[in-house]
Design goal:
single chain, mainly alpha, 3 helices, about 75% helix, about 0% strand
């Protein structure tokens, strides 16, 4: 359980561009919101729904980001 100097996994070593890093981090935020959504189903359906909304907002932000970048 000690993750202080964990080796990078193969997918982390295959990041060749800023876009790859941004995509990976959008995925992390979405996965985090999903985990919190699931955890809060045990305690508060309202908080679970909030994290579900946040997760879908993150999908939208990602889509809007890449649309905006392609326009530049």
């Amino acid at each position: 359980l000690n993750d202080v100097q964990k080796s990078s996994i193969k997918s982390e070593l295959n990041r060749n561009s800023l876009e790859d890093i941004i995509i990976a981090n959008f995925s992390r935020t979405q996965e985090s919101a999903r985990v919190l959504e699931e955890v809060f189903k045990l305690q508060s359906i309202e908080l679970s729904e909030l994290f579900k909304t946040i997760r879908y907002e993150l999908y939208s932000v990602e889509k809007e980001y890449f649309i905006a970048i392609k326009m530049i």
